[in-house]
Specification:
It comes from Streptomyces zhihengii. Belongs to the group II decarboxylase family. GO terms for molecular function: transaminase activity. Keywords: Aminotransferase, Decarboxylase, Lyase, Pyridoxal phosphate, Transferase. With 480 residues, the chain is of the alpha/beta class. 43% of the residues lie in helices and 13% in strands. It is globular. The N and C termini lie far apart (69 Å). The structure holds pyridoxal-5'-phosphate. Pyridoxal-5'-phosphate (PLP) binds next to helix 6.
């Protein structure tokens, strides 16, 4: 069994084993045209259930053979140009290379004495990202597991900086299109169910700052305390970017924390043509960035950035065995002092390798391509009488629904759209997402693959229309 330990004597075994895995995946990617096989949980669950975990196989090759059956064959493949559903990107090769290196060396980024150079690399990438956002000389931050954790930490800092310790008085303002992790964070932070004030959006799905101002005024006049305003820079559904400069002005006027949730829109930080969409982000107190959404990085790779490094002390706790107080005076760079996590992956290495091989503009150019694709997709949808499209995209999502001319029942139209999404998924030919707008069922493309073409979009729209028509055909006949 010792031959399975990765060390100085097993280099050859390591090389062979990992190479075989890489070759299997490479072959899989080369031969997989569809994003999905359409497998159902009912069909796949018995295959997984039949594996006896107490009886190992002969070797890694056998385990890879089995993996084909239980995972690889039926996985959902984001590299497919017809995977158009959620905020999952195809990944770039330098980042995958970084992933292979970081898990083999297995640094843990909590303390200097578990990572050494990894700590400095992470810090440099944080500084680089803060500079791109324009957060100023005192900025800092830390890598996190994802936008959800980044938002939680941002709101923790905001709560600790708030002007009252009476949690029942604190209010967070976020648009009705903000991410649900804001609500989840509020609960985790001990705030009441009323704590998150939902601010309405305008027709382009951006926060209405007039309404925000009214809410802030009302809050203060009731003796409550604004704890934070969360501006979403790229809403998950619409990619809409809240008006950051106006929100920054209100945050200053009401002396409250401004958090920018740029989990999705952070790709604009490196965009050669669209950086202006993030103007105002430099005035934020904290920013969430998800490199695993718009920087083409494998899950997970995310960070929380703050304007004032000192605010990260709210996440600082000392353990004698790990990061005793004296390490502060000794200026030992222990990232755990800034993090909600303890043991933590060296995810930063993936972004490092990406920037060293492709450069920032290389990544930004790819993100620009998918934003251009969304603009072209919007033109297609807007010109297509079969479809209703909600907003012209600022980033790379499209929310739309199939609207048959002959059918007036809103319930039936909802059902037809839902059916089309499910039937498409079951066919494996393409994967799209769904969402609701004003209570009605819509469909969504999240475009993050520069290999997707307008031809793909047109083809998928035809597939959806076909499924919806078939459903209506069956159900209208039935009804009459
Ligand atoms: C995806 C997303 C999040 C959550 O990020 P995870 O990495 O999935 O935890 C938060 N905010 C917005 C706007 C998002 O799109």
């Amino acid at each position: 069994m010792r031959s399975h330990l990765l060390n100085d004597t097993t280099a050859e075994h390591y090389r062979r084993s990992v190479t075989e895995g890489v070759e299997r995946v490479a072959a899989k990617l080369a031969s997989t045209q569809r994003p999905f096989t359409g497998v159902t949980p009912d069909r796949l669950a018995p295959v997984v259930a039949a594996v006896d975990l107490d009886t190992p196989l002969a070797d890694a090759s056998a385990a890879l053979d089995e993996l084909e059956e239980v995972y690889l064959r039926d996985a959902v493949y984001f590299h497919s140009p017809r995977y158009l559903a959620h905020l999952n990107c195809p990944v770039v090769i330098p980042a995958v290379l970084g992933e292979a290196v970081l898990s083999a060396v297995n640094s843990s980024l909590d303390t200097w004495d578990q990572s050494a150079g990894g700590t400095l690399i992470e810090r440099k990438l944080i500084d680089w990202t803060c500079a791109r956002a324009g957060l100023g000389p005192a900025a800092d931050g830390v890598f996190t597991s994802g936008g959800t954790q980044s938002n939680l930490q941002a709101l923790l800092l905001a709560r600790q900086e708030a002007k009252t310790t009476d949690l029942s008085k604190l209010r967070i303002f976020a648009s009705e299109c903000s991410h649900f992790s804001v609500q989840k964070s509020a609960t985790l932070l001990g705030l009441g169910p009323e704590a998150v004030v939902s601010v309405p959006v305008d027709r382009t799905k951006r926060m209405q700052t007039v309404a925000l101002e009214a809410e802030l005024m009302g809050c203060v006049s009731e003796g409550l305390v604004p704890m934070a305003i969360v501006a979403t820079a790229g809403t998950t559904d619409f990619g809409s970017i809240d008006p950051l400069p106006e929100i920054a002005a209100l945050a200053r006027q009401y002396e409250t924390w401004m958090h920018v949730d740029a989990a999705y829109g952070c790709g604009l930080l490196v965009s050669p043509t669209r950086r202006g969409l993030l103007d105002g982000i430099e005035r934020a107190d904290s920013v969430t960035v998800d490199f695993h959404k718009s920087f083409f990085q494998p899950v997970s790779s995310s960070a929380l950035l703050v304007r004032d490094a000192a605010t990260l002390r709210h996440a600082t706790y000392h353990a004698e065995y790990l990061n005793p107080r004296r390490t502060l005076e000794e200026k030992i760079p222990n990232q755990v002092d800034k993090s909600l996590q303890t043991t933590r992956r060296f995810d930063a290495l993936k972004l490092w390798m990406t920037l060293r091989v492709m450069g920032a503009e290389g990544i930004g150019g790819l993100f620009d391509e998918v934003c251009d694709l969304a603009a072209a997709g919007w033109e297609l949808l807007a010109a297509d009488p079969r479809y209703d499209v909600v907003v012209q995209p600022q980033l790379s999502t499209l929310v739309y629904r199939y609207i048959p001319e002959s059918v007036t029942s809103p319930v039936l139209i909802d059902q037809a759209n839902l059916h089309a999404r499910k039937a498409l998924f079951a066919s494996g030919e393409a994967v799209v997402a769904g969402t609701k707008v004003a209570g009605r069922q819509y469909l969504k493309f999240t475009l993050l693959n520069p290999e997707t073409t307008t031809g793909d979009i047109a083809a998928v729209l035809d597939l959806i229309a076909g499924h919806a028509e078939q459903f209506l055909g069956e159900n209208l006949v039935h009804a009459s």
